[in-house]
Amino acid sequence: VRARVMEVIEAPSVDYQDIGGLEKEIQEVVETVELPLTQPELFASVGIEPPRGVLLYGPPGTGKTLLAKAVAHQANATFIRMSGSELVHKFIGEGAQLVRDLFQMARDKAPSIIFIDELDAVGSRRTHDGTTGSAEVNRTMMQLLSELDGFSERGNVRIMAATNRIDMLDPAILRPGRFDRIIEVPLPDEKGREQIFKIHTRKMTTEEDVDVQKIIEEMEGASGADVKAIVTEAGMFAIRRRSKAVNMEDFEKAIDKVLHKETPVEVPTS
Ligand code: ATP
């Protein structure tokens, strides 16, 4: 049961080149997570401690998980992902133990990167409403804080977390020595959307009528995950026509389907 809640990838295949936009954010992650793993002596000789925990925050589907996987790839580290919401909603009563297991596994498989998705599910401001649910969440969070505190800054285990709701986080979790490096991962701008579009259409056959600039403009407000979904949908429309190449109309229909559909685009992360 416990193994199922963790996703473990020995060395993820995601590369920094698979990430569109986010140059500044990649740079920050390189300095705060990758370098402490690959060149710890840099920190030792300058005499500073790298941050223990790095928190990525921003809207859903902007590439936070991608970024964490790419660092693990670059540092040749094991990537261990655990979802905060699964931790507290699916494995009720086991949260604290799972956190312990998570850190133990990370030490066993070091060098490694722990990635905790949906950190807000574990680390929200405590409600003190006395329900068993929140007592359980509190226990899980106390365990997480204690693992973070007992964690060697110079070790070869690094920890990253992500949230869409930084405003909800308990200040205790953001205290110095914990998740004290905060990196915003925003929605892509036009340039970013173009790069993400190029990444996801790398292997796609397109007709000459495809106007990339227009597509990029029409995708205003789209996340990286939306851009990817649009490319996939456009491909599906082409397949439906039994065509080998995707045309402009396929893209128009895909944009409409992904961005303008009535029901919210959000998919529950089981
Ligand atoms: P969530 O907060 O919902 O967990 P996230 O920020 O972790 O989202 P990812 O899981 O990294 O988002 O993104 C989902 C998918 O969308 C990725 O696997 C990738 O295919 C695509 N994607 C998102 N952002 C980017 C990006 N910046 N460049 C390229 N692809 C992206």
From TrEMBL:
<dbReference type="GO" id="GO:0005737">
    <property type="term" value="C:cytoplasm"/>
</dbReference>
<dbReference type="GO" id="GO:0000502">
    <property type="term" value="C:proteasome complex"/>
</dbReference>
<comment type="similarity">
    <text>Belongs to the AAA ATPase family.</text>
</comment>
<keyword id="KW-0547">Nucleotide-binding</keyword>
<keyword id="KW-0143">Chaperone</keyword>
<keyword id="KW-0378">Hydrolase</keyword>
<dbReference type="GO" id="GO:0016887">
    <property type="term" value="F:ATP hydrolysis activity"/>
</dbReference>
<keyword id="KW-0067">ATP-binding</keyword>
<feature type="domain" description="AAA+ ATPase">
    <location>
        <begin position="50"/>
        <end position="189"/>
    </location>
</feature>
<keyword id="KW-0963">Cytoplasm</keyword>
<dbReference type="GO" id="GO:0005524">
    <property type="term" value="F:ATP binding"/>
</dbReference>
<keyword id="KW-0647">Proteasome</keyword>
<keyword id="KW-0175">Coiled coil</keyword>
<protein>
    <submittedName>
        <fullName>26S proteasome regulatory subunit (Proteasome-activating nucleotidase)</fullName>
        <ecNumber>3.6.1.3</ecNumber>
    </submittedName>
</protein>
